[in-house]
Amino acid sequence: MKYLRSRSLKRLFSMKRRRFDEEPAKDGDGEEMMGRCDSLKVGGVVEGCFQKPTWKCFSFEEIFEATDGFISENVVGRGGYAEVYRGKLKTGEAIAVKRLTKACTDDERKEKEFLTEIGTMGHVCHPNVSSLLGCCLDHGLYLIFQFSVRGSVASILHNEKLPAMDWKTRYKIAVGTAKGLHYLHKGCQRRIIHRDIKASNILLTDDFEPQISDFGLAKWLPSQWTHHSIVPIEGTFGYLAPEYFMHGIVDEKTDVFAFGVFILEIISGRKPVYESHQCLHSWARPLLNQGDVDKLIDPKLTDKFDDGQMRKLAFAASLCIRVSGTWRPTMSEVLEVIFDDHVDEERWKMPEEEGQGEFWGFEDLESECDSSIFTELSV
Ligand SMILES: Nc1ncnc2c1ncn2[C@@H]1O[C@H](COP(=O)(O)OP(=O)(O)O)[C@@H](O)[C@H]1O
Ligand SMILES: [Mg+2]
């Protein structure tokens, strides 16, 4: 484990130093290591050039002081392997400190995930991706982020005590998340597959701009690889693409599927898994196929939504949750569907036999829900 940590960190810090050099850093294959800052064409709109990320090493004293000694009152979130604390730097900046839980500090895999998160997030820079301020490696492993005042989409959308989220906010979240995911897949030098797109991993800024966070499971795929096979299967049940949980196959379409489920969550206000093992996508699929979008819509929205936007998002979701990854759109295509005023639905028609196979294949999979494979999965 010591070897893993020192080798990974050495590589990481050498990359950070290079960030400020004139020449772009090259890896072993002569490829640039930096996140590319090309402008991206998104739904006919050219998105601006994003700045290169910068982050620093914090001292333990700094983050200890900022979080009032990691008091439990400052805990804002707990995930699979970390606790997240609210904090305030001497400069007044609000931060979130993610600490690898003590129980996981001897777990090599968890430590690797933590380092993966530093490595990946240190390279990304986009308004819809959470930005890493730095890390601390004394007395444990810590990641430091800008603090998201509003928490995650899950904490607002599914909070019965809060008023229902309005349509304008839901639409903004859907579009921003699509742009962030498109950037990860296409805007970085390396293709980044997030692998855990879900409502509790989408944080919100003060003005409800969504930011994709939690890169613990993220993978970088070399450009020449079509996909990657992964064991064990990790992620969140209800968002998992069938080819991933059956065969461990990971590529951009894994995230596209999860994004489709996320859109359904936003439209319907339902959780991705409800009433024991009932999946949101299995409930929504026949309704979408029959064009019964109205039955999907969150009753709490009453009639206060933009019908055109709703229909486009529902159509995009229907494509994203297709069982066959080949028939799912890329994130560029998702953005086209969302923004295009005249979506050519014919273009997305699947051959008859693909459509039929889809339904059967998936229902079969769902009956496997409580098999041991899910011991690795969280809900
Ligand atoms: N930057 C942040 N600002 C505010 N809350 C955060 C921030 N980062 C994480 N959280 C909260 O902590 C929870 C867990 O964080 P996450 O990074 O997803 O950890 P895990 O990998 O353990 O799931 C999130 O769902 C969110 O509620
Ligand atoms: Mg998380």
Automatic annotation (TrEMBL):
This is Protein kinase domain-containing protein. The keyword Nucleotide-binding applies. The keyword Transferase applies. Belongs to the protein kinase superfamily. Gene3D superfamilies: Phosphorylase Kinase, domain 1, Transferase(Phosphotransferase) domain 1. Residues 70-343 form the Protein kinase domain. ATP binds at residue 98. The lineage of its organism: Eukaryota, Viridiplantae, Streptophyta, Embryophyta, Tracheophyta. It comes from Kalanchoe fedtschenkoi (Lavender scallops). InterPro entries: Kinase-like_dom_sf (IPR011009), Prot_kinase_dom (IPR000719), Protein_kinase_ATP_BS (IPR017441), RBK1/2/STUNTED (IPR046958), Ser-Thr/Tyr_kinase_cat_dom (IPR001245), Ser/Thr_kinase_AS (IPR008271). It comes from the Eukaryota. Keywords: ATP-binding, Kinase, Nucleotide-binding, Serine/threonine-protein kinase, Transferase. SMART domains: S_TKc. One of its GO terms (molecular function) is protein serine/threonine kinase activity.
